[in-house]
Amino acid sequence: MEEQPVVDLGAIRGDWNFHARYVTNALEQTLKRANKLWRELKANSAATDEVPMDDALMEEFIEACRQTRALTDDVLLLRETKPARPARSSRRRKATRKARK
């Protein structure tokens, strides 16, 4: 059995925001492509509420769906590796409270 490649989570944490923006954009573009292909399939159908199952366009649609699924895995990975936000300084809050009085 072939071993799955290991993801270096430290590399992702290095620039988490860049990866999050990349995955968001890739997911958005793939969903647009899948929707466009679905509309084309429905337009090419011979019967209402039915799409051609053996069309080359269907293969493209299936591939777009597979890519969407892979990108959702990336979203889950990014969610698990999201860096914690640094804690705010308590000095700043105290200074703000004094200024309001």
Structural write-up:
The chain has 101 residues and is mostly helical. Helix 2 packs antiparallel against helix 3 (56-80). The mean pLDDT is 82. The chain has four helices and no strands. It has one domain.
Low-pLDDT parts are none
Mean pLDDT: 82
Number of domains: 1
Q: What order do the helices and strands follow?
A: HHHH
> How helix-rich are the residues, as a percent range?
55-70%
Secondary structural class: mainly alpha
Total strands:
0
Count of helical stretches: 4
Q: In angstroms, what separates the terminal alpha carbons?
A: 69 Å
Radius of gyration over all CA atoms, rounded: 23 Å
Please report which band the strand proportion falls in: under 5%, 5-15%, 15-25%, 25-35%, 35-45% or over 45%. Answer: under 5%
Main pleated-sheet profile: none
- The gross shape turns out to be elongated
Question: What structural keywords apply?
Answer:
single chain, 101 residues, mainly alpha, 4 helices, 69% helix, elongated
In short:
The chain is mainly α.
Which helices and strands occur, and which strands form pairs?
Blueprint: H1 9-14, H2 16-43, H3 56-80, H4 90-100
Helix pairs in contact: 2-3
